[in-house]
Each structure stands twice: as structure tokens, then as C-alpha cells.
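Quercetin dioxygenase-like cupin family protein, pasting as requested.
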Amino acid sequence: MSHPPPGLVQVRTLADHPLAGSGAAALRMVATGALTSGRFGLVEYRLAPHSPGAAPHYHQTFSESFYVLSGELTLYADRRWQPCRPGDFALASEGGVHGFRNDSDEPVSFLILFTPGIAREEFFAETAELRRSGRTLSPEERTAFYARHDQVVVEE
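C-alpha cells follow.
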């Protein structure tokens, strides 16, 4: 039996693709949509204790799944905030309102899987740059930013 052509397995080490961020949140793009030919994207996310994450929102063109690795993630689902612990999984299908934060006294680490693998890394990069610079978006800029990244914020 012969082997398929080489290059069909890619390894992305933590050393080559470390967590980025400062303050309360750090993340790394474990697998970008470009790496997976648009099949999916995978983000490792860490939040410090008592840190905000994402306010309730939804996406029209992609789903997000959450898998808690350590700590306790507070997830917005079914119109309420609820704790999720290591091993817990949540799927927010297209149009499913969701959000996340860390209400606990310990750090939380979790994975976010989005499908299909759109260029979601651009959203995270722009968000990180806004945090770094301290720049606040005008209402018009915020609307354009969210529209560009298919993020529809909703009232709780």
C-alpha cells in the first residue's frame, strides 16, 4: 500500500503559535480557516478571573462551539447565563444567541470551534488592537465593525 502525497498533515506547535493577549484575555488561533481550507477554525481562549468576554450576540453565516478545558466558563444560552465546567460543550448554531465571560475566582480555558472556517482571526486581531490602543469606536464604526465580522449584538 502506498502513502498519499506528503504535506497532508500539519503540526502547529504552541511554541510556534503562542497565546497572544494582555490583561484579562489571551488567545491563539490553533487552526485558521485558511489552514483548514475553510472547513473550520479553532481558537484557544483564556480569561482571567472576573473578566468580561463576549456580550450576547449571534452570527448569521457560521456556528460556534465551546468546549471548556479548565475553570468555569459562564455561557449565555437560552436567554440566561449558566456555568460550564471542564468537559462541558455548547453549540451555538447560526442565529443562536450566545455570549461568554468568567464570573469565577479562577482562570478559565476553553476552545471555540467555528464552522465553516471563515477568516475569524481578523475579528480577534482587530479586537486585540482596539484593546491595545485603547481606542473607542464611534457608534457608526462599531456597527461597521460588527457587520464586517457577522456579529449581531443583542440586548440581554
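Note for the archive: The chain has a mean pLDDT of 91.
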